[in-house]
Design goal:
Strand order of the largest sheet: 3-2-1-4-5
Number of strands: 5
Radius of gyration: 31 Å
Strand content: 5-15%
Order of helices and strands: HEHEHEHEEHH
Number of helices: 6
Helix content: 55-70%
Structural class: alpha/beta
Distance between the termini: 38 Å
Shape: elongated
Largest sheet: 5 strands, mixed
Length: about 300
């Protein structure tokens, strides 16, 4: 076997092994994205109903609650950025980071300082490499988040919103994550969670309650106490839904990236096989030529001796 043919066969074995790995990762991501889709669908009704309840309390009373009242001159904002713990998902994390950069620039242009809260090792590495300050970060659960993870994330954010900016608090809470639209489409979006935009929340509530009679609420013991109890749950549910959507988006992006890698490996194997066949045919042709040449030389030598 010639040296060129050995090189081609070695590369074919290497690419075949890589193809097996990417195919396995594609199948794993496909199974995980189905579970993540179910979790997103299961969490959405709770978040929608909670939004309706909070909106009803906020609009049906004259209570000036710090989590629903706009600051006169907002000067500080918290940014929750949800990325992935692992790569091999195409441009999933980079798209979220780009959306976070655009939001940060917009907030700074409005004269607001931005405090970063990061979910996922990719976002933590991005900020660490650029030596940017991160108030708090969470890692290790982005592939399969739980409600307990959402509560752990929401707690310091709610505390920051309730504190005065002079004491390290913030006036606004924004979140950037990847919205799962379909298996082929996932979009990085940003949303303001706090203060609660009553017009937007009312529109979402009306959309989710089409064809239903909106209930009338009575507040006991008071609207402010109800808001104190509901708004933390509202933030937790929205963060949990965002984590689930991000997880589903990540698995879908991984599946798409691994399928592309598998397809590319198959094309490369076909190309290398053609080159290997051509090299083998060239070797055979050369060997035949050498045999024919040797036989002709031997025949000429025999004829000369006669």
């Amino acid at each position: 076997m010639g040296a060129k043919l050995r090189v081609y066969k070695r590369r074919i074995r290497s690419v075949t092994a890589t193809k097996k790995i990417t195919k396995a990762m594609e199948m794993i991501a496909a199974s995980r994205v189905v579970k993540a889709q179910r979790q997103v669908a299961a969490s959405t009704p709770y978040a929608s109903e909670l939004t309706r309840a909070v909106t009803a309390v906020a609009t049906g009373s004259n209570t000036q609650h710090p989590l629903t009242t706009e600051a006169e001159r907002p000067s500080r904002a918290a940014l929750l950025l949800i990325t992935s713990d692992r790569g091999l998902a195409g441009g999933y994390s980079s798209n979220v980071l780009k959306a976070g950069e655009k939001l940060t620039e917009r907030l700074k242009a409005e004269g607001k300082e931005v405090d970063a809260y990061i979910v996922g090792r990719k976002g933590v590495s991005y900020y660490s490499f650029r030596e940017r300050k991160v108030v708090e970060s969470w890692t290790g659960f982005t592939d399969s988040p739980t409600y307990a993870d959402a509560k752990a994330i929401a707690a310091p954010l709610i505390d920051a919103v309730q504190q005065d900016t002079a004491e390290g608090g913030v006036d606004e809470l924004h979140i950037v994550f990847t919205e799962f639209i379909s298996m082929m489409t996932q979009t990085a979006v940003d949303d303001r969670l706090l203060p609660l935009s009553l017009d937007k929340a009312a529109a979402e509530s009306e959309e989710s309650a089409k064809g239903e009679i909106l209930p009338l609420f009575e507040f006991e013991p008071s609207a402010e106490d109800v808001l104190d109890a509901l708004l933390p749950r509202y933030v937790e549910s929205r963060i949990y839904n965002a984590l689930l959507q991000a997880a589903a988006s990540k698995h879908a992006a991984t599946r798409r990236a691994m399928k592309s890698a598998t397809d590319n490996a198959e094309e490369l194997i076909k190309s290398l096989s053609r080159l290997a066949n051509a090299a083998r045919q060239a070797e055979i042709t050369q060997e035949i030529s050498e045999i024919v040449g040797g036989a002709s030389a031997l025949a000429d030598a025999t004829a000369g001796s006669d």
